[in-house]
Amino acid sequence: MEIKFVKINPTQNMTILVESPISRKDQPTIASQLMNYDSVFAEQVGFIEAPLFYPDSWARIQMMGGEFCGNATLSLAALLSIDRDLPLEIQTQIPIESSGTEQLIQCEVTRKEDHILTSLTLPTPSKIELTTLMLEERSYDLTVVYLDGITHIILPVQSVTQEDIYFAEKATQAWQNRFETDALGLMLLEEKEYRITPLVYVKSTDSLIWERGCGSGTAAIGAYLAHKAQQSINAPIAQPGGDIVVKVGYSSGSITTLTITGKVKIATRGIAYL
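^ that's the sequence the OP posted. Answer follows.
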């Protein structure tokens, strides 16, 4: 089976976008195969589709598990800027449909010589709440940020240790059925440094990935920090693959806007044989 794909680098959160038409029922299987080390190898897979609901949308990104993914959406916007040969240094609005949300996602793209600067505005969280979660008869009071298509648990740490890594993996697998969501993220947060180490579980592919960068996780951290401080936030959030900037508007006790910005590079384009 021949699969046309593009491999894209949004803050080293290596993403495969599939250009070949693939039925929804086959997407999780195809995604799992493409992600493997002996295939194209990446952290996540999205499928490029025609828009379903918004005539003004340039395209639709359907993620492998039906979840929402900020970096994959930024990747598609960057790819569209290349394929449509947009001029350098000119900011362009690119509306994109995405799985995991009913809202049209507005992306801003500026082509540079060696990368594409991209940003998108996400739907604001439906809920941010302190939740008691149990693991091996012990309770943990953690903040949970509910975004369209993905839910993120915030786990504050002083610095990331091997013990934290082991706990995060065990906890994410134990808690993934606790939430009605297509994907669950656990963000190890070093709050003083504004640094995260993201772990994401996608239900339909049963994949648990330590990501080099996480767009929706960055948005969740921004929402968490703004909610905690009760004020707007505009800051780079460091992660293993680099920084993603989050900007959160906060007014009258609630989050009003949520935007992430990052650099995207097109790594390669080709055909995978499965």
